[in-house]
Amino acid sequence: MSAKPSKPAEPQRPAPGPGRPKDLAKRAAILDAAVRMFTRLGFEGASMDQIAAEAGVSKLTVYSHFGDKEALFGETVRVVCASLMPDDLFVPDPEAPLRAQLAGIARAFFTLITSDEALATHRLMMSPGSGERLCRMFWQAGPERTQRAFATFLAARAARGELDLPDVQRAARQFFALLKGDLHTRMACGLCERPDPAGVEAHIQATVDMFLRAYATRPAAAGR
């Protein structure tokens, strides 16, 4: 009697180990710890050993996730910015009035730049010890990302005929410069506290008013 043909061996499947969720949890813990340590001690003062201890992981784990301290710093800036100014904030809503969307973006931006983390980072970037590479990483992870997203938003609203923007990038920079004003500089220098909610809202509305006076399209003049 002939032997039955043997079944081909099934390919081995990798065991669904629990490593990936733990990796994501460790990454989040490292970023949370890095935000606290950079805010408290500055870039030079915070060591990878301290960040690892604060996160409850090994220093090797920190390096395996982020490579070096500068890369970790850049990622903390990106994460803080994204948490307060997520990408969907800049999605043009054709059903929402332009003014309302501008005010929403302005509130989120003002909340971001006056947060303890942002003010500490601003002071760090202005200090003599900050190198060009660190400043560039900060710029790319924070302000540049925000300006680029806002410029895309403005271009979309201009395409709907709501804004007249000869230079979209310049208009985006001007909007954020108006929001910062001298208030942000005085706060960063420790010369004043954050204004009360009514004062913040008045500042935001005045900024939006000025921006729209400069760039909102005007209705066509009536025929003579």
Automatic annotation (TrEMBL):
Protein name: TetR family transcriptional regulator
Gene3D superfamilies, per the entry: Homeodomain-like, Tetracycline Repressor, domain 2
Transcription recorded as keyword: yes
Domain HTH tetR-type residue range list: 24-84
Origin: domain of life: Bacteria
Keyword annotations from UniProtKB, A to Z: DNA-binding, Transcription, Transcription regulation
One Gene Ontology molecular-function label: DNA-binding transcription factor activity
Source organism: Luteimonas wenzhouensis
DNA-binding region, residue range(s): 47-66
Region listing for Disordered, in residue ranges: 1-23
Matches recorded under SUPFAM superfamilies: Homeodomain-like, Tetracyclin repressor-like, C-terminal domain
